[in-house]
Design brief:
6 strands; mainly alpha; 3-stranded antiparallel β-sheet; 460 residues; single chain
């Protein structure tokens, strides 16, 4: 073997400034700032034109998560993750296009695959009796006007209280918790009856009976013979937690009293898949911070719900829902869009900071909504909004507008989109928690930039 045949160990090779910046998720000039602060060491190779960096040292800095831009540089926190990539108007889970996943797999299947790497066809998540009973008691004790996010937050706390082993952060225990918590959250929400506000229990009580038998095999009404028209009273109290059908039909009965049909259930299930994760959204960052402090999975989800409850995050689809109802009521999008522009408000459901073109999640859902006959009026209203707004500024629809079409078309209330978002995103939060549990603890600790009066100050 000649000298030219020697293969360098990949772990020992040097990185260029650009390669180091890419691994760290920062600008090249920031890499030199790390060198000046002693966080990285650089070296000029003989005959080389620029600095090089040790790959192991760069990766160690990336894992620590304590990188900071120099003061005044307008830094963004970068966190290494192998879950979601958003690139060129596409969204990928572990390198697989999310639209393809939604077209071929159920929510439970994708969630399980995201957690474990194994695609288990037909997997169903089941709520355990004790956790579900505790969650329902807590939810039922809330005031009648309580909204769905309040109920979900109470349900997760009650389920945690019913699990004395919740502090076991081993991967197996966390996965068992995830598989049971998601159906518990759904089953803790009361079934919908005609004219009933979302979140209020019907006169017949809240149940969690079997609902359907698989993706691509949703029965008319989404369940056993009679489907959604059977009513919750037929579920005996002894069957708490016996619900082992697909999650989408179970959630459907908590969102609307209208009977389910296969095309509508496919849209709901696809929405659940597409909303599982979306990189480091505000709620996901809150989850990573909690996981860094080694909070248990229930507390992780509670942290996510807290951030999701903000008006600029999970509630966005409700604004689009109300807008579409107004368009349908007034018979034209022009006046409705004009009202938003006149008030200086952004038109709901349009534009997304991560996509230059159309939100791929919206694109996938709109395609499925074409197969739902009762969605045609709401679909046309959405198109009118897009066309009308384009006269002022070209903005592409986002997933909130697609969710609003589904919720308006199926008689769901404005808050239903937020409920779908919260249930779906729980699986993504668990995936991020599992990643963060493998990182050094308490690494999510940025430094504050103090802007108050300089000491010493007189005693107040």
């Amino acid at each position: 073997m000649t000298d030219h045949d020697v293969v360098q160990d990949p772990d020992e090779r040097r990185l260029s400034t650009r390669e180091a910046a890419d691994r760290l998720g920062v600008k090249p000039e920031t890499v030199y700032a790390y060198v000046s602060r002693g966080q990285l060491t650089s070296r000029r190779e003989p005959g080389g034109r620029g600095s090089t960096f040790d790959a192991k040292e760069v990766d160690a800095l990336a894992r620590r998560g304590d990188r900071r831009e120099p003061s005044g540089a307008g830094s963004e926190l970068a966190v290494r993750t192998g879950i979601t990539l958003i690139d060129r108007d596409h969204c990928y889970f572990r390198g697989v296009d999310t639209s393809e996943l939604a077209a071929h797999h159920s929510y439970e299947e994708v969630a399980e695959w995201l957690w474990t790497g194994e695609m288990r066809r037909g997997i169903r998540f089941t709520a355990p009796h004790d956790a579900l009973a505790a969650a329902r008691r807590a939810v039922d004790a809330l005031p009648a006007h309580t909204g769905p996010m309040d109920r979900l937050q109470v349900a997760v706390i009650a389920a945690a209280a019913a699990d004395p082993l919740r502090f076991d952060l081993s991967e197996r225990a966390v996965l068992d918790t995830a598989r049971s918590l998601i159906p518990t959250l759904v089953a803790a929400l009361p079934r919908r009856t005609a004219g009933q506000p979302l979140g209020q229990a019907g006169a017949e009580g809240a149940g969690g009976g079997r609902a359907g038998d698989g993706r691509g095999a949703y029965g008319e009404g989404g369940g056993e013979p009679g489907g959604a028209e059977r009513g919750a009273a037929e579920e005996p109290a002894s069957e708490l937690g016996a619900d082992d059908g697909p999650l989408a039909p179970r959630l459907w009965s908590r969102l609307t009293s209208e009977p389910a049909d296969p095309p509508s259930l496919r849209v709901l299930d696809a929405a659940l898949v597409l909303l599982i994760d979306h990189d480091l959204a505000a709620s996901t960052l809150a989850v990573r911070v909690a996981a860094s402090a080694r909070a248990h999975p229930y507390a992780i989800v509670s942290a996510g719900f807290g951030a999701l409850d903000g008006a600029l995050h999970g509630a966005a689809s409700g604004l689009a829902h109300r807008m579409l109802l107004e368009v349908l009521d007034r018979g034209s999008a022009a006046a409705v869009v004009a009202d938003h522009l006149r008030a200086g408000r952004q038109v709901p459901g349009l534009g997304h900071r991560l996509y230059e073109g159309e939100d791929p999640r919206a694109r996938a859902l709109f395609a499925l909504l074409e197969d739902v006959p009762r969605a045609r009026p709401a679909l046309q209203a959405a198109r009118d909004v897009i066309t009308t707004t384009a006269r002022h500024k070209e903005l592409h629809p986002n997933v909130d507008l697609a969710l609003a079409v589904l919720t308006v078309a199926t008689g769901m209330p404005a808050e239903a989109g937020e409920t779908v978002f919260a249930v779906a995103r729980t699986a993504g939060w668990i995936a991020h928690a599992l990643e963060e549990y493998d990182e050094p603890p308490l690494r999510m600790r940025p430094r504050g930039q103090y802007s108050g009066p300089r000491p010493p100050q007189p005693l107040p």
